C-alpha cells in the first residue's frame, strides 16, 4: 500500500502533509510517523500533518478541516503554528487542483479544528499566511506547570535546570511554552540543555522552550527546543509565546519581528488575540510505502 504526500516547510520547520479527508482518524500510526520523519531512512520532517474532515463546533460555524499532527518522536502536540500555515497552503492547493477555487487563493481563510481549538489561518500574497492564534493562556494550570499556584501567572520565576537558575515566563498558545531571556542566544548549548527543560518535573506534560535575545523592543532573536522534535529551525507558537512573555516582562512591544534560524515571523498582540504572519512553502510531493 502506498500513500501520497506533499512536503512543505515554514521557515525550515518541515512537515509531511497527507490528504486524510476520507477518514476522521490519521491514516498512519505514531510509530509509522516516526519512520516517515527519519531523515536518513524516511522522507525526513519535524512532523506528519493529517488534513482530516471538518467537525461541528458547538455554538460556532463548523470547521472546514481538522488538523492532527504527530511529531518526529511519535508524540501528538495540541497545535503547531508553522504547521497550520503549511496546512492552509496544502488544503488551498487541494481545492485548486479539484477546481473548487480560483487560481489565486489570497484572502481565503479556513476554520481548522485542532486539539487546541479552532484556529483561523488566512492566505496572503507571496506565499505568506496570517494566523489568528487566539488568546494566550497565562495561568499555571493552563500551561500546565507547578512553578506557581494553579490560578497564578508564571512571570520571571526561577527554574533550576542544566546546573543553573533561569528566570522563566510560561505561556500556553494551546501548547505549553517556557521562555527565558538571555544576552546571546548563539552561546546557549541547546543540544545539551534542551531536553533538560523539556522533561523538567515542573512541567507534567513536558514543555517547549524558547531562548530569546532582545535586539530592540520590536525585534527579538529566538532559538527553540520543541517538545517531541528537539532543535528546529522555527516554531510559530513559540514565537507568539515569546512576544507575550516579552510584553509581560516589559522587554518588547506588542508588535515585533521574531528572527528564528529559519527566517522571520511577524507577531502582533492586538487586543486579546495573537496574530502570526510568515511563509509556508511547498517543497516536493511523492508516495511512500507502508
Automatic annotation (TrEMBL):
Catalytic residues at 80 (proton donor), 80, 235 (proton acceptor)
List residue numbers at the site (Could be important to modulate the pK values of the two catalytic cysteine residues).
177, 226
Q: Where in the cell is it found?
A: Cytoplasm
Task: Please state the pathway this protein functions in, per its UniProt record.
Answer: Amino-acid biosynthesis; L-lysine biosynthesis via DAP pathway; DL-2,6-diaminopimelate from LL-2,6-diaminopimelate: step 1/1
Q: Which GO terms describe its cellular component?
A: cytosol
Superkingdom of origin: Bacteria
Q: What is its EC number?
A: 5.1.1.7
What the entry lists under InterPro entries is as follows: DAP_epimerase_AS, DAP_epimerase_DapF
Predominant cellular place of this UniProt entry's protein: cytoplasm
Q: Which GO terms describe its biological process?
A: lysine biosynthetic process via diaminopimelate
* Entry keyword set: Amino-acid biosynthesis, Cytoplasm, Isomerase, Lysine biosynthesis
Q: Does the keyword Repeat apply?
A: no
One matching Pfam family, short form? Answer: DAP_epimerase
- Keyword Transmembrane helix present in the record's keywords: the answer is no
**Residues where substrate binds:** 13, 71, 81-82, 175, 208, 226-227, 236-237
- Listed HAMAP family: DAP_epimerase
Q: What does this protein do?
A: Catalyzes the stereoinversion of LL-2,6-diaminopimelate (L,L-DAP) to meso-diaminopimelate (meso-DAP), a precursor of L-lysine and an essential component of the bacterial peptidoglycan.
Name the protein family: Belongs to the diaminopimelate epimerase family.
Please name the NCBIfam families in this protein's record. Answer: DapF
Q: How does it assemble?
A: Homodimer.
UniProt-recorded name of the protein: Diaminopimelate epimerase
Q: Which organism is it from?
A: Drouetiella hepatica Uher 2000/2452
Amino acid at each position: 500500500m502506498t500513500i501520497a504526500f506533499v512536503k512543505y516547510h515554514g521557515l525550515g520547520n518541515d512537515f509531511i502533509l497527507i490528504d486524510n479527508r476520507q477518514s476522521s482518524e490519521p491514516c498512519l500510526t505514531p510509530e509509522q510517523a516516526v519512520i516517515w520523519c527519519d531523515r536518513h531512512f524516511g522522507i525526513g520532517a519535524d512532523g506528519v500533518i493529517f488534513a482530516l474532515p471538518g467537525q461541528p463546533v458547538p455554538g460556532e460555524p463548523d470547521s472546514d478541516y481538522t488538523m492532527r499532527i504527530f511529531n518526529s518522536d511519535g508524540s501528538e502536540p495540541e497545535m503547531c503554528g508553522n504547521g497550520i500555515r503549511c496546512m492552509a497552503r496544502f488544503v488551498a492547493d487541494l481545492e485548486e487542483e479539484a477546481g473548487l477555487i480560483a487560481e489565486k487563493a489570497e484572502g481565503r481563510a479556513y476554520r481548522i479544528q485542532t486539539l487546541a481549538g479552532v484556529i483561523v489561518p488566512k492566505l496572503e500574497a507571496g506565499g505568506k499566511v496570517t494566523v489568528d492564534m487566539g488568546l494566550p493562556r497565562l495561568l499555571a494550570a493552563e500551561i500546565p506547570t507547578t512553578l506557581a499556584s494553579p490560578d497564578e501567572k508564571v512571570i520571571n520565576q526561577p527554574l533550576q535546570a542544566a546546573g543553573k537558575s533561569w528566570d522563566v515566563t510560561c505561556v500556553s498558545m494551546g501548547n505549553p511554552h517556557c521562555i527565558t531571556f538571555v544576552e546571546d542566544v548563539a552561546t546557549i548549548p541547546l543540544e545539551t540543555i534542551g531536553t533538560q527543560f523539556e522533561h523538567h518535573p515542573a512541567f507534567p506534560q513536558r514543555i517547549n522552550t524558547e531562548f530569546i535575545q532582545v535586539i530592540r523592543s520590536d525585534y527579538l532573536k529566538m532559538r527553540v527546543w520543541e517538545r517531541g522534535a528537539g532543535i528546529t529551525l522555527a516554531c510559530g507558537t513559540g514565537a507568539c509565546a515569546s512576544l507575550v512573555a516579552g510584553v509581560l516582562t516589559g522587554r518588547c512591544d506588542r508588535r515585533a519581528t521574531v528572527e528564528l534560524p529559519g527566517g522571520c515571523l511577524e507577531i502582533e498582540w492586538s487586543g486579546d488575540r495573537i496574530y502570526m504572519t510568515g511563509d509556508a512553502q511547498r517543497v516536493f510531493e511523492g508516495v511512500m510505502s507502508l
